[in-house]
Each structure stands twice: as structure tokens, then as C-alpha cells.
Amino acid sequence: MEIKLPETKANTKRTSKLGRSEWIEAAFRLLTESGVTSINVEKLAKRLGVTKGSFYWHFKDRTELLEAVLDKWHDQYVIAKVEHMGGDAYTRLINLLDVVPRKRGSKHLGGSMELAMRSWARYDDDAENVVADVDRLRVNYVADLLRELGFPEEELESRAFLIYAYVMCQGIFSFEKTDDILERIHNTCTDILIPRD
């Protein structure tokens, strides 16, 4: 009589080509579409076209996945994207202001992601701590760039806050304006926030 062992990491060849990053990206999509409570293993597996068992190759449980989502959001996107683009302090600030597409109908998830993360942070201590840390890092990053440009020290915090608020609002607001008008508004805001002598 042959005894069949239960499938485990130790005795089963991995059949899925999915890695942790694909599960995290799928969780980001669900988060932006319908909030953190919608993230569950069954729904993610169905979206990815794999079994739930595939999930457990990469994560112990849903909590570990949510921690990975928070970690990735903390470490990613805004500052990393701007730094990758390079340039002097002024160029990096301009790139920061341009990080969220302004075109109507853009499928950019940045604004949705920001709203979803902040909604999650309202009732989850871990998410709240990550959001607060990200906000602090981003505002300090902007202040450092402004310092490099020679803005007065007493203006740095306020100007950095306004620039950060503008970047966040670009992704959240839905304007009934043409792309030309949105571009003109953006250029005027840029001139006000980061005047070039």
C-alpha cells in the first residue's frame, strides 16, 4: 500500500511561476479598487489564475501579505521614482510635481493608492505608522531639495508641505477641465511653489 504524503514545500515541485511580487501587485490592485478588507487569498488566487496553495509558497498568511504591501508602499514609488530620474534639485522637484499624470482619463493608480492607504491607516495601527512615516520622509525629501536651491530655512517646512499636498491632490482630484487647462494650472502652480529667479 502506497502512502501519499500531503503536499508541502518539501515534497512538491512548485508549479506556479508567480513570485511574491505578483501577489503583492495583485493585492495593491484590490486595495485600490475596494479597500484592504477586500484582500483575501481566494480572491487574489482567482485573479491570478492559480490555486490558493500557490499563495502559501510565498506567504505564511494574509497578515504577512499585508505587511509586504505596507513595506513595498513605504519603500517605493514617489522618492525612488524621482531619484531614478536624476537631475539637480530643481529638476528633481519638477519631476516630483510631474510624478502623477494630469491627463484626463489617466489610468494611473497613484491617487487611488494614496486614498486606499490613508483609509486603511484610519483603523489599523501598522498602516497608520507606515503612512505617517512615508509622509514624513516625503516632506523631508522635498525640504532637502528646497534647501539645496537656497530657499530660506524658515520657509522650508511650509513650502515642502504645500508642494507635497499639491502632488497628492493631483492624483486625488477629478477635474472637469481639458488637458490644456490642466497643464496651464499645473504650470502656474509650479511657478508659485518653486519660483525660478
TrEMBL record:
Keywords: DNA-binding. One of its GO terms (molecular function) is DNA-binding transcription factor activity. SUPFAM superfamilies: Homeodomain-like (SSF46689). Residues 17-77 form the HTH tetR-type domain. Residues 40-59 bind DNA. This is TetR family transcriptional regulator. The keyword DNA-binding applies. It comes from the Bacteria.
